[in-house]
Amino acid sequence: MTENDHLSESLEDYLETILELQTTKTVARSKDIADKMDIKRGSVTGMLKKLADSQLINYEPYGYVTLTPEGKKIAQDVEQRHIFLKDFFHRILGVDEETAERTGCQMEHAMDKETFKKFREFVAKVDACPHQCQ
Amino acid sequence: MTENDHLSESLEDYLETILELQTTKTVARSKDIADKMDIKRGSVTGMLKKLADSQLINYEPYGYVTLTPEGKKIAQDVEQRHIFLKDFFHRILGVDEETAERTGCQMEHAMDKETFKKFREFVAKVDACPHQCQ
DNA sequence: TCATAATGTTTTATATAGCTAACTTTTATT
DNA sequence: AATAAAAGTTAGCTATATAAAACATTATGA
């Protein structure tokens, strides 16, 4: 709603990671965030404080982390792009899975809502093309 | 050749900018690099030293900047992706030019050679599809 | 319940990339 | 050639994001 004044890629990654942990393990712990993002535990704390300051997560020291509605919305948007882009590179372009994952992970931050929508529609149309030109 | 251990996005942008200045103005000056990248003159010097250390540019204090063969190769690769991606977003997807430019500028760093090649071929095929499914 | 392990936090340090402002060198003008 | 303007450099500062290591808290399990 408050059309957030641009989150860094890193903070978007934190939100996405927290959403995934919430989904797969019900709660997000500092250590799991660190493991998933391949960074150290100590680095996580400061970033959680930032996200809490921006009211994107609920955070109390030594407590579990949960997404606020606004944080969840952003996380889902990022995740959606991530999943779509990875699938595009891997399944449609035939890029190996690891590279597709890495590329999607970088590009998920680059497209705004409108651009992503157009991209998705373009790919969907081509994918459904009965003539299989591609 | 020495399959460089990954340049930062910023350094890639410097190389691309230098190439463009070389092309349009024959030489690249510190001030023009700063103007083009919308940063301050003082910030440029240190980065030029880094690029010189990595033997990607020829740099002497108070002199003109030129790309080494290796620097030029990287710059051309980045530029090629940039041009292609901008065109894809603008002409093919119909994204407004400024957004297409900005998005291309971010994404040009995300795809490796192989992924870009596949992406380019995919778009070319679709673009040439006689059935115009897209 | 108490000791140990696991997890979370804090502090200090590092790297990157930028800015400002003062200073130096080069270029242009007269 | 002398001076002013423009361009380039330097030094010190800032912000972001991370690491390492010491410390604090919580959880586990004997």
Helices and strands of chain A, in order, run as: HHHEEHHH
The shape of chain A is elongated
What structural category do the secondary elements of chain A indicate? Answer: mainly alpha
Number of strands of chain A: 2
Query: What's the oligomerization state?
Result: homodimer
Which range best describes the helical content of chain A: under 10%, 10-25%, 25-40%, 40-55%, 55-70% or over 70%?
55-70%
- Low-pLDDT stretches of chain A: none
**Global Rg of chain A:** 17 Å
Number of helices of chain A: 6
Tally of distinct domains of chain A: 2
The name of the CATH topology of the largest domain in chain A is Arc Repressor Mutant, subunit A
